[in-house]
Design brief:
By secondary structure, this protein is α/β, with parallel strands linked by helices. It contains 17 helices and 15 strands. The strands form 4 sheets. An 8-stranded parallel barrel has the order 1-2-3-4-5-7-10-12, surrounded by 5 helices. The longest helix has 28 residues. 51% of the residues are buried. The chain binds 1-deoxynojirimycin.
């Protein structure tokens, strides 16, 4: 009898599908950065001013250490060293963004900067020399100031401005760039920049800023997507998507109220941007739209603060993406009744009106909002996979911050990356079409309102040295080993601190 049970047990273990233990050979491993955070050269050649130049120069007190991105990691001069670091890590891909006002100093296409175009040509060519796939974001938060002077994302002409910028970019770089991302993190652009004061242009239009911006952003995205599809795709053969920040939001308890609360919070955090593009019905998320419409009426607004998309607009936006880029960092648990905060009324999170809880046992990074939440990549991506009918995904950012004095020893970052990449393996195993993973970040950089006080780099940057010397941290060696072997060895320890380039890179 015992023997039969034992045989049964062994058989069932053997039959169980083995956990994915290796990353596929064609899975793209990379790192990510953004123009304003690394480039410097803020007024090099004929580059125009952008909203971060303006804000950090006129309101330095809003940045924690009063710093700015004038020089940053000086990639404008050091781009060859950046590519050398990519080769050291053995990257398959590198995600970076273009500075709109470096290419179009006035924001509009009446003037194209030759120097700006030449800089990106050099950067891209240097990557391609070593078989590193460039993944290019068109907009990572540095809007030309001239366009901000006309209202930026709130101007109804914004979608046209963005479309014409996108066409210039496809035209100039599309012979070599095959992965396009229109916008980085719409929530952070719209809520933090227009509905709050935590990103430029710190407009703080809490009632409508987020929503008007959301509408113009998704329309701008769709126009840029169709421009690529209609005018360039045939000859250039690339793909175009958008990157949305999707941190996992789960219910605090299994109660129906908490599950509904979590759903409303997800609709407000990322549904506003994902739903119009990736859902079958199109338009802004249903329940959340109803909530905002009802509250707006009670508050005496003539129409909903969240504008509707017309049927024509819905059609333009629906399906306008070849892939879903996900920036993922952390998670929170949501309650219908507990842990509520006082948000300004009206505002995005007053409209959401739920509480949010983060278990204290989740390891805390230097950034206040960032914790290592178990299985959060798996939870977020399997959710999106089901909800939107299995689109293609890339994780376009994922990473961990440490305090600036922590130097080479970044064991908590290593712990985070190993946990995250195990969650990526689980996600692949669940059948999600996930094609790549970009670690944030290749090197330390200007962390927006936190200046240089929070460090996300696999490479440390010495911001006090003129060359902005870059030195690999321990996590760089660990990531290199994972990319090379396509698996996660939980015990791997680098022998010493000397980096090298493997043959063939
Ligand atoms: C997401 C943003 O895209 C990036 O610019 C930022 O530095 C990281 N999160 C870390 O906060």
């Amino acid at each position: 009898m015992k023997l039969i049970i034992l045989i049964g047990l062994v058989a069932s273990i053997c039959n169980a599908t083995p956990r994915h233990s290796k990353f596929p050979d064609d899975f793209l491993f990379g790192t990510a950065t953004a123009s304003y955070q690394i480039e410097g050269g803020w007024n090099a050649d004929d580059k125009g001013e952008n909203i971060w130049d303006r804000m950090t120069h006129t309101r330095p007190e809003v940045i924690k250490d009063g710093s700015n991105g004038d020089v940053a990691a000086d990639t404008y001069t050091n781009y060859k060293r950046d590519v050398e670091m990519m080769r050291e890590l053995g990257l398959d891909a590198y995600r970076f963004s273009l500075s709109w006002s470096r290419i179009l100093p006035n924001g509009l296409t009446n003037k194209i900067s030759e120097a700006g175009v030449a800089f990106y040509n050099n950067y891209i060519d240097e990557m391609l020399k070593y078989n590193i796939t460039p993944m290019v974001t068109l907009y990572h938060w540095d809007l030309p100031q001239k366009l901000q002077d006309f209202g930026g994302f709130l101007n109804p002409d914004f979608p046209l401005w963005f479309e014409s910028y996108a066409k210039v970019v496809y035209e100039k770089f599309g012979d070599r760039v095959k992965h396009w991302i229109t916008f980085n993190e719409p929530r952070e652009i719209c809520f933090q920049g227009y509905g709050d004061v935590s990103k430029a242009p710190i407009l703080n239009a809490t009632d409508v800023g987020t929503y008007y911006c959301a509408k113009n952003l998704v329309l701008g995205h769709a126009k840029a997507y169709h421009a690529y599809n209609n005018l360039f795709k045939l000859s250039q053969g690339g793909v175009c998507g958008i990157t949305i920040s999707v941190n996992w939001v789960g219910p605090l308890t299994d109660s129906e109220e908490d599950q509904y609360a979590a759903e409303i919070r997800r609709q407000a955090d990322w549904g506003l941007y994902a739903e119009p593009i990736f859902s079958e019905q199109g338009g802004f998320p249903k329940e959340f739209s109803e909530i905002v419409a009802k509250k707006s009426a009670e508050q005496g607004y003539p129409t909903s603060r969240l504008p509707e998309l017309t049927d024509e607009e819905k059609d333009l936006v629906r399906g306008a993406a070849d892939f879903f880029g996900v920036n993922h960092y952390t998670a929170s648990l949501v309650s219908a009744t507990e842990y509520k905060n006082d948000y300004p009324i009206p505002s995005l999170y007053a409209d959401v009106d739920v509480g949010s809880y983060v278990p204290p046992e989740w390891l805390q990074a230097e950034s206040a909002w960032l914790r290592l939440a178990p299985d959060s990549i798996y939870n977020a991506l399997t959710h999106l996979h089901k909800k939107y009918n299995g689109p293609t995904f890339y994780i376009t950012e994922n990473g961990w911050s440490q305090a600036l004095e922590e130097g080479y020893e970044d064991d908590s970052r290593i712990k985070y990356y190993r946990a995250a990449l195990n969650s990526v393996l689980d996600t692949l195993h669940a059948g999600v079409d996930l094609r790549g993973y970009m670690a944030w970040s290749l090197m330390d950089n200007f962390e927006w309102m936190q200046g240089y006080t929070e460090r996300f780099g696999l490479y440390e940057v010495d911001f006090s040295s003129e060359q902005r010397t870059r030195t690999p941290r321990k996590s760089a060696f660990v990531y290199k080993q994972i990319i090379r072997t396509r698996e996660i060895d939980p015990y791997f320890e680098p022998d010493n601190r000397t980096m090298w380039i493997d043959e063939g890179h």
